[in-house]
């Protein structure tokens, strides 16, 4: 049983290591954000939108995706006196769109962030079902990584407990790790 659990433990670790490292790197950017450069490239352009495809904001977004190279989930849809406003977002890029019925044009303000901000946006992506298959796939990998880390911890505790010679050292490390995690959690909640 020990050999089987050891193999499961190692297999899980090798499976989730890449995603765990991405989350670790994004956590560093969260913690040290004030000290790290946060450059964003901003552009602005106006494009024509055919009246027959400009019935709803989603139809406008599909037109912008098909013919103008925009990508992202449609968020923040709002009706204006002259048309619609909405955002198209994917980690690393955001497009703010203002469509005017009078001119038949969409004014697009785009922001593109560097790696650090993109990692932070990936870290905080919430929800499971998204319009973008890539975002849905990312959410599925995040869920599997979370479950894998829980199984990794449980199998590690089992392996530690079965190995009698390392119980004292393992117990001390487990206690220190749990104490550090709980104290950090409490301190972050007190600060906000």
Summarize the structure.
This protein has helices at residues 2-31, 57-68, 115-123, 133-162, 167-191, and strands at 40-48, 73-79, 83-90, 93-100, 105-113.
Spatial order of the strands in the main sheet?
A: 1-5-4-3-2
Say how many strands there are.
5
User: SSE string, helix = H, strand = E?
Assistant: HEHEEEEHHH
Largest sheet at a glance? Answer: 5 strands, antiparallel
Instruction: Give the strand content.
Output: 15-25%
Global geometry: elongated
Quote the average pLDDT: 85
Report the radius of gyration as a whole number of Å.
23 Å
Number of helices: 5
Classification by helices and strands: alpha+beta
Residue share in helix: 55-70%
User: Spans of 5+ residues with little confidence (pLDDT < 50)?
Assistant: none
Give the termini distance in whole angstroms. 45 Å
Task: Write down the domain tally.
Answer: 2
């Amino acid at each position: 049983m020990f050999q089987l659990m050891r193999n499961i433990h190692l297999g899980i670790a090798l499976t989730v290591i890449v995603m765990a490292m991405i989350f670790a790197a994004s956590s560093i950017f969260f913690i040290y954000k004030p000290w790290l450069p946060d450059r964003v490239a901003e552009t602005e352009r106006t494009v024509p939108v055919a009246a027959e495809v400009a019935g709803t904001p989603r139809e406008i977004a599909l037109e912008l995706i098909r013919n103008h190279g925009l990508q992202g989930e449609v968020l923040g849809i709002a009706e204006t006196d002259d048309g619609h406003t909405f955002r198209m977002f994917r980690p690393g890029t955001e497009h703010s769109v203002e469509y005017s019925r009078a001119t038949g044009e969409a004014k697009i303000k785009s922001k593109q962030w560097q790696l650090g901000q993109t990692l932070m946006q990936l870290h905080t992506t919430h929800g499971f079902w998204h319009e973008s298959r890539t975002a849905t796939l990312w959410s599925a990998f995040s869920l599997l990584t979370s479950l894998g880390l829980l199984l990794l911890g449980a199998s590690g505790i089992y392996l530690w407990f079965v190995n009698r010679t390392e119980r004292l050292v393992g117990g001390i490390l487990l206690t220190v790790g749990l104490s550090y995690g709980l104290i950090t959690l409490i301190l972050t909640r007190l600060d906000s």
